[in-house]
Design a protein that fits this description.
five-stranded antiparallel sheet
Length: 319
């Protein structure tokens, strides 16, 4: 049973057998890089206030990712065409699954559907939706634009398998119970460190090696040219994070594949930023780690918190 506000329960209980109920589904994509894509799945755009979404329960759980204790409206414009969400609900630890089909208008259309400057197909191919959270909120309204009844979370999950076609994208969206299906031990005995760089086990403060850089030209690619990049040692920012601090991409982050220091310097990211980069746009770099004991010791002086087992022999020499 889905939780709902008292006002919504009273409204639904008061509907007669022939009384129509007006509702709209609102879909939100929370991308891994920090971007939110919100769309109305109805025939009209909607702007419900943030406090009309499902609030947390008494234990602080179950809130909509759109909920905030504010009456500030959230914009849900019309976007690509979405199929009606097909869900399967199970009892127990098997994850509920939802199927979503998206029919975006192509870039050559008079009103194309884009993710930043990319088509939906290109964005999916480049991994924009990998690991993204997807939430569908159902909003009941006595009249269009009346948000007094609030909404509830119809489905919340993470993007799983994606099938990309010329005119359609199919997404499988299992709910978060899918995280319990992974078969892996609590600790892995391997030479490389098993901690996430900078987490509570690693304890290293990545901001100690933060560096601010500025773009040296207008560009939009995997390779970003910057005016000057120090990076000592030269591999400091490999596997690190680059976050836009100004410009159209402000607030978005990407993983660094490699960085070449110099004046100018070059930063290669695994996935391009969604919007073009202008000359002078500012970025903040945080270091990365290759999870070897040599890097942990010589670069970050953090060997005491190393989470690997460097003296385990390789499988070829274990017998």
């Amino acid at each position: 049973m889905k939780p709902a506000s008292t006002a919504l329960q009273n409204y639904l209980n008061g509907l007669g057998p022939s009384s129509p109920a007006l509702f709209a589904d609102l879909i939100t994509f929370a991308l891994y890089g920090g971007q939110f894509l919100r769309f109305s799945m109805a025939q009209f755009p909607l702007s419900p206030p943030a406090n009309s979404f499902q609030p947390p329960d008494a234990s602080g759980n179950g809130a909509s990712i759109n909920y905030a204790a504010s009456s500030a409206p959230l914009s849900f414009p019309l976007g690509p065409l979405f199929s009606r969400l097909k869900t399967s609900v199970k009892i127990g630890l098997d994850p509920d699954r939802a199927q979503l089909s998206i029919f975006p208008h192509p870039p050559g259309d008079a009103s194309p559907d884009l993710v930043g400057t990319l088509s939906w197909q290109d964005a999916a191919l480049l991994g924009f939706f990998n690991g993204a959270a997807v939430e569908v909120d159902r909003l009941f309204m006595p009249a269009v634009g009346d948000y007094s009844l609030g909404s509830f979370v119809l489905h919340l999950g993470r993007v799983g398998q994606i099938k990309i076609g010329r005119s359609k994208i199919d997404m499988e969206i299992p709910n978060l119970l899918v995280l319990l299906t992974g078969q892996y031990p609590r600790r892995l005995f391997q030479p490389q460190c098993t901690w996430a760089f900078g987490d509570s086990h690693c304890t290293y403060n990545r901001s100690l090696n933060a560096e601010s850089v500025a773009s040296n030209k207008a560009q939009s690619a995997l390779s970003i040219g910057v005016r000057s990049l120090l990076a000592t040692p030269s591999t400091l920012y490999n596997f690190g994070t680059i976050s836009a601090a100004s410009g159209a991409n402000n607030g978005f982050s990407r993983t660094i594949s490699s960085a070449s220091p110099g004046s100018p310097g070059t930063i290669v990211v695994t996935v391009p930023f969604p919007y073009p980069i202008d000359a002078g746009d500012l970025f903040t770099l945080l270091p990365g780690c290759d999870h070897t004991i040599a890097t942990c010791d010589t670069v970050f002086d953090n060997e005491a918190n190393f989470g690997g087992f460097p003296y385990i022999p390789p499988p070829e020499a274990a017998v």
